[in-house]
Amino acid sequence: MKKEADEPIERSLSDAYFAGFFDSEGTVEAFGFNQIRTRCPQKYRPICDAYQLRFEGGVCYSGGKYHWNLNHADKCIKMLHAIQPYSIEKLPQIDLVLNMKNNEAPIVNQALKQYKGNQLGRPAPEKKEPQQPKKRLHGLPRYITITRKKGEICGYVANYKGKSRRFASSHDTMEVKLAKAIERLEEMKREYAESSK
Question: What is the CATH code for 15-113?
Fold first, then answer.
């Protein structure tokens, strides 16, 4: 693409150009409740800068390489739509993410893992089926999910910054369990804020 090694990269690059680098070095991940993250590491920083200029995101340096990162789901979707027509090696992964339905992120991420480090797109040996993600009931506060027993809702889980606490006592009504979960969630937030100071 360049006549000289240190020649600057053009600012008006095509989406096919970005798709080529993404096919070679890029990764896409799905996590949480339909969150998406895309990355592309390069030894030559201007390539990461070009990604940032075209698709936003950030650039950092670690492990002897520059890394372009984009962590905003909507922006990731726009970026993947832009390079999808030109992608060859990463097309299966891009299609998986773009066709992801609500609450399917953990399942999609398990499927994406079979492609990492496999530029030819041959899937790795099959692994056991991933568990279905727990679905949040409509109206539940963020960071609170439900627990089930024999298909019936039996309690709630408060999740915050990698910690969780369950509320499934058979003596309490569902309203009391939810109130306890919300109360504990607020405590967990306060504890995390204090430990971060």
Answer: 3.10.28.10
What's the pLDDT tens digit per position in 102-139?
878 888 888 888 775 533 334 445 555 555 545 455 56
Whether the Cβ atoms of residue 43 and residue 118 lie closer than 8 Å to each other: no
CB 107 within 8 A of CB 133: yes
pLDDT at 93 over 80: yes
> How many of the other CB atoms lie within 10 Å of CB of 40?
24
For the chain, the structural domain boundaries read: 15-113, 144-195
Residue 118 pLDDT: 38
Residue 94's CB is within 10 A of a number of other CB atoms, namely: 21
In the sheet that 27-31 helps form, which strands lie side by side, from edge to edge? 27-31, 35-42, 65-70, 58-62
Cβ atoms 161, 195 nearer than 8 A: no
Which residues, at least 6 apart from 128, have a Cβ–Cβ distance to it below 8 Å?
Answer: none
Q: What is the pLDDT of residue 34?
A: 78
**pLDDT value of residue 82:** 92
Which of the 8 DSSP states describes residue 64? Answer: T
169 vs 189: CA distance, rounded Å: 23
Say how far apart CA 70 and CA 54 lie, in whole Å: 11
